[in-house]
Specification:
three-stranded antiparallel β-sheet, globular
């Protein structure tokens, strides 16, 4: 009996070692050694996942320009058992708005547009390329700044988001459809209403000015120069899933036209990609920014009467951030005045506002962050 019991113990021990080796193999990229502070961070993420029924998550944290922590948690595909790893890409949804805003501000720095430029109508950035003329009330008053700050005058997503209309249309067709059939209720600049339509329009502005597709312009002029090669516009269905992209655990995640959201919500990325990008617009001298200080000041100053949103960036004191949500996925990034830039993505329907709180708690935790820079 004693010998049989010992055999069982040995088999269990070997099995545990094997599972540990398998776990390491599924999460190959190097990570800093765990300590009490890091354990607290991991505990916060696991608690969040448990409370919100999230299958998997990826996290990246930078401090003073250095990537000090990156970690993957749980499952990229709960059904198959595939684990998340730090190279797993996920939909970033409305964080794409910050990406688009960066592209617009770069074009402004190059003298190719002004924030007060009109978008539609004769002599405007997009001229009469969209919709049927004569335009309805307020359309020709719309400017780049209105779109960047969600002061379009309507077309909000609080209910009946117009970008969810006619899923068979591409972005260009949909914009014309909205212009013709969904009137603006207020004059642009007079009221805040979070609008996916405004950023979808900005994507077409970028295309018109650059002569490239929105995706290609952002890759060529924003992402590639700073070493980001794995961000791209995502697909619509599970069959369109990209290499190293997580599965989204909601059946409705694959029923809409995700790809046409490009400029307002279509990118996929790793958490590290997001941190690598946003340390380049954090206003700190630790890593050279890709936008001038005066441009960043404009980008983080509310242009109208709503003080919590500037130009593609949400404001809370010295903290800059943006969240993203789509069926089956949530994401968030933030930059603090104390030198942190962090991003987290989950492949479940957790509340995006709670992700903001989670990131705030992570960067405020008592952690002795490593000096090693995982960007290098």
């Amino acid at each position: 009996m004693f010998i049989n019991s010992m055999k069982v113990i040995i088999l269990i021990f070997v099995g545990i070692i094997g599972l540990g080796a398998c776990s390491k193999e599924n999460n190959p990229p190097a990570q800093p050694p765990s300590g009490d502070g890091i354990t607290k961070v991991d505990d916060m993420v696991y608690r969040y996942m448990s409370q919100n029924s999230v299958p998997g998550a990826t996290l990246a944290v930078s401090r003073n320009g250095k990537l000090v922590y990156t970690k993957a948690y749980g499952f990229a595909d709960r059904e198959s058992g595939e684990r998340m790893n730090v190279n797993t890409r996920s939909r970033i949804s409305s964080i794409s708005k910050t990406v688009t805003a960066i592209a617009i501000m770069k074009l402004m720095e190059e003298g190719k547009l002004n924030l007060d430029d009109k978008i539609f109508g004769t002599g405007a950035l997009l001229g009469n390329d969209f919709g049927t003329q004569p335009y309805k009330t307020h359309i020709t008053s719309l400017t780049v700044k209105h779109c960047l700050s969600h002061h379009v005058g309507g077309w909000g997503n609080a209910s009946n988001d117009p970008t969810m209309r006619n899923p068979s249309m591409d972005a260009t067709q949909l914009i014309s459809d909205i212009i013709n059939n969904v009137p603006l209720s207020n004059a642009p600049g007079t009221s805040y209403a979070y609008s996916n339509v405004g950023f979808m329009i900005l994507g077409r502005v970028i295309e018109k000015i650059s002569g490239k597709s929105y995706e290609q312009y952002v890759k060529d002029e924003i992402l590639s120069p700073i070493g980001i090669t794995t961000m791209e516009i995502g697909g619509n269905t599970l069959a369109d899933q990209k290499t190293n992209e997580s599965k989204y655990h909601n059946t409705s995640a694959y029923t809409g036209n995700f790809a046409r959201r490009d400029a307002n919500g279509g990118w996929i990325a790793t958490a590290t990609d997001l941190v690598r990008l946003f340390v380049r617009i954090d206003g700190s001298a630790t890593v050279p920014d890709i936008l001038q200080n005066t441009t960043l000041q404009t980008m983080t100053t509310p242009p109208f009467n709503y003080q919590n949103y500037a130009l593609g960036i949400t404001l809370n004191g010295s903290t800059w951030s943006h969240g993203g949500s789509y069926s089956g996925s949530r994401s968030h990034w933030l930059r603090t005045g104390s030198g942190f830039v962090a991003a987290i993505m989950v492949n479940g329907d957790a509340n995006a506002n709670n992700l903001q709180t989670l990131l705030e708690n992570i960067v405020a935790a008592s952690v002795e962050w490593p000096n090693e820079d995982l960007f290098k």
